[in-house]
Design brief:
This protein is an all-beta fold and 733 residues long. Helix content is 2%, strand content 54%. It has 3 domains: 9-39 and 339-620, YVTN repeat-like/Quinoprotein amine dehydrogenase (Methylamine Dehydrogenase, Chain H, 7 Propeller); 48-331, YVTN repeat-like/Quinoprotein amine dehydrogenase (Methylamine Dehydrogenase, Chain H), CATH 2.130.10; 642-731, Immunoglobulin-like. It contains 2 helices and 63 strands.
Length: 733
């Protein structure tokens, strides 16, 4: 299925007369639109998506985020998490400090725990305690504005404490006021502190921070859990006298906040509000995204599945959730899902191809289904043909070629798409799993290797060659080479310069089990069960594993084009990944499918997907040809650091080191890191300030604790404050 096919009907037909007959038949069947429909892509990054889970040694309680760094209070530690590491966030530093709540105002992190502690995080890799205050009772909340920190103390009576932090090394209490029923949730907006209590919320005027004055409250609410503020509106989660879920209060008059509306969200807990969006955690584990652009009329936009969390932090459109023993991230974006443009249900869809304006969909139980996509928002099944055990399809009008279990290859005449009929059958028994077309030949992937079939006469397909190979599951064509996903044998390249005398050109193993292959120029994307392997096929006789994008769930299907690939992740669903820098693939976003992606095809700005239990799904592509994605800062328009290539490459650690020359235009801090192909940090040199001019970064081929690195591909990353550059290195066996 995975070849790229011409869509022009005249190109597909062998004679002008036949082309005319095919065009008329397709038009009558509804497969050719009278006028090309307007089509567009979307920016996946601006939509809701599940990002990742970072394991933590202890159960987290609170999270504060600044730029590419998250600070996590968990157990007796504060963990520093680098959010810009390829392959997902990673813990890069820890500090022994028990904390309940965190507030970060760079360069300081303020900690409410056993004490009130101020930590210098100017260098996040080397956090240092610079100030400490031990109040009469341990503080349970902290909010900071300017030179003052506001603390909650939970002893009876509860207290609102104000601390002067103008000198971070010597914080001092300037006021401490008893406030009945005060609770551990504070939000500061303008000159007001909004504080939750066990039965309501309170508004304090802090224009004079040393003397906060309580000015308003809506009265008894019930059992609110969290609080947020946007403009003149206050938002509360939990069970109140007004509603169960998400409530909105107009606080234009801070002395008399008034309930105005709600979104029913039973068992709502933690909440955060930024700009026009609010995120709310619930007991069911779903993260609720509420659009508050019109605060009086809040609208529930999306409910991405997440693990249960008591709290949530929203920063730069990303929700950070402290769950169990992990940090979970969900991209909130615009509060909406990327949704299919159109769909056509089918019981067990397994493969598809496109011809004209019809999609030829294979279904394991229904056989071949012809779907008109003349109106892509309302695809219609217009024809079909029962086929037993179909497994793969390729279309070259007016025929569809179907890999079909023990029958090997079927040719189906689709000149009248509404009435497809069997035209030819391979007379020899072949167990086929997929099919691709190369000129006058059909290439069958088989558990026994490669089978070449002459289809010059589609009504009389003829087997002309076999090549024994490991079990093949999927096959795609580029030039006169075929590339096959070969289960436990990785990716195989076949030279078909003479299709009737095929030969194995090269083979490269992949970390998992290779199920599906898609071609994007000189790259092959291989759905490898535990991720997507990116392989350079520019030289088919010397395949090169460039990187592996690890998925959080199992991956069986992949398609791609223009430096992007779309894959099935059993946890995240349909994901879009930027591979324009193949060594550093980055998650762009995800969409909701009716079922798991089995196979797909990218044509123009549409992804046609065969979704198991979902049928045909038509999705928009991601707009950008390349992007830095989630968690990585875009490259600046200037070059601040010139970086050479690694040398020698490959290198043998027993006799040499890998060196990367670079030049700095001025004195600046630089960090050097090494990652494996799974995106895992294996070695790092802490931030160091270097002088302007020529410098050299070296790696001796050893891991963090001195063990030799296994042979394979690695990526060196040099970072300054405004630039990140990656270079590829190979450790020779």
């Amino acid at each position: 299925m995975c070849s790229v096919y011409p869509l022009a009907l005249v190109t597909a037909a062998r004679t002008p007369a036949l082309a005319a007959r095919v065009l008329v038949a397709l038009a009558l069947a509804g497969c050719v639109p009278p006028i090309a429909a307007a089509r567009d892509c979307v920016d996946y990054r601006s939509y809701v998506q599940y990002l990742d889970v970072t394991p933590l040694p202890e159960m987290p309680r609170d999270i504060a985020v600044a730029g590419d760094v998250a600070y996590v209070a968990a157990g007796s530690q504060v963990y520093v998490v680098d959010l810009a590491v390829p392959g997902g966030p990673a813990i890069v530093a820890t500090l022994q400090e028990r904390a309940s709540r965190l507030e970060v105002e760079p360069p300081y992190l303020y900690v409410a725990g056993n004490d009130f502690t101020i930590i210098d995080v100017g260098d996040p890799l080397s956090p240092k305690v610079v100030g400490r205050l031990t109040p009469p009772e341990p503080p349970g909340e902290v909010a900071v504005q300017g030179n003052h920190a506001f603390l909650f103390q939970g002893a009876n009576p509860q207290r609102l404490m104000v601390v002067d932090v103008s000198d971070p090394t010597a914080p001092k209490i300037v006021s401490s006021e008893a406030v009945s029923y005060l609770s551990d949730r504070f939000v500061i907006s303008g000159h007001y502190l909004y504080a939750l209590s066990s039965i309501t919320f309170l508004i304090f005027d802090i224009s004079n921070p040393a003397q906060p004055v309580m000015v308003g409250t809506p009265g008894g609410l019930g059992f609110p859990w969290d609080i947020g503020v946007s403009g003149n509106y206050v938002f509360a989660s939990g069970t109140t006298d007004w509603a169960d879920g998400f409530q909105v209060y107009d606080a234009t008059d801070v002395t008399n906040p008034v309930f105005v509306n709600d979104v029913p969200l039973p068992n709502a807990f933690g909440m955060d509000v930024k700009g026009n969006l609010a995120v709310v955690t619930t007991f069911t584990g779903d993260l609720q995204v509420v659009d508050i652009a019109d605060p009086i009329h809040p609208v529930l936009r999306a409910s991405p599945a997440a693990h249960f969390a008591w709290d949530v932090t929203l920063e730069e459109g990303v929700a950070y959730l402290p769950v169990d023993t992990a940090l979970e991230r969900v991209q909130v974006g615009n509060g909406r899902w990327v949704e299919p443009v159109g769909s056509a249900p089918s019981p067990v869809a397994i493969d598809l191809d496109v011809g004209g304006k019809c999609v030829y969909l294979l279904d394991r139980t229904a056989g071949l289904r012809v779907v008109s996509v003349s109106d892509e928002r309302n695809p219609q099944v217009i024809g079909g043909l029962p086929i037993g055990l179909p497994s793969g399809i390729s279309v070259r009008l007016p025929y569809a070629y179907v890999a079909n279990g023990n029958q090997g290859l079927l040719t189906v005449d689709v000149s009248d798409p509404a009435h497809p009929h069997l035209a030819g059958l391979l007379q020899e028994s072949v167990l086929a799993t997929d099919v691709a077309l190369l000129g006058k030949y059909a290439l069958l992937a088989s558990p026994n290797g490669l089978v070449v079939v002459d289809v010059r006469k589609p009504t009389e397909p003829r087997r002309v060659a076999d090549l024994s190979a490991p079990a093949l599951e999927s096959i795609a064509v580029r030039g006169h080479y075929a590339f096959a996903a070969a289960s436990t044998a990785g990716l195989l390249a076949f030279d078909l310069a003479d299709p009737e005398s095929p030969r194995l050109a090269d083979q490269i193993d992949t970390p998992g089990t290779a199920h599906e292959v898609a071609i994007d120029g000189a790259l092959a994307y291989v759905a490898d069960q535990t991720g997507v392997a990116i392989i350079d096929i520019g030289n088919p006789v010397a395949l090169d594993l460039v990187a592996v994008y690890p998925t959080s769930g199992e991956t069986y299907g992949v398609t791609g084009g223009s430096g992007l690939f779309y894959a099935a992740d059993s946890d995240l669903g349909f994901i879009c990944v930027d591979a324009s820098l193949p060594e550093q693939p980055v998650l762009i976003g995800r969409a909701e499918l009716g079922g798991r992606l089995q196979r797909g095809l990218v044509i123009g700005d549409r992804v046609f997907a065969a979704a198991l239990a979902g049928g045909l799904e038509i999705l928009p592509t991601h707009c950008a040809q390349s992007s830095t994605g989630i968690g990585l800062s875009p490259s600046p328009p200037w070059i601040s650091m010139n970086v050479g290539l690694a040398s020698p490459n490959p290198f043998w650690p027993t006799i040499s080191v890998a060196s990367i020359p670079f030049e700095l235009p001025k004195r600046m801090a630089v960090r050097f890191e090494v990652f494996d192909v799974q995106g895992r940090l294996v070695r790092a040199v802490p931030w160091r300030t270097l002088e302007a001019g020529g410098q050299v970064a070296t790696w001796d081929g050893r891991l963090e604790f001195g063990a030799p690195a296994p042979a394979g591909v690695y990526f060196a990353r040099l970072r300054t404050g405004d630039q990140t550059v990656t270079r590829r290195m190979v450790v020779a066996p």
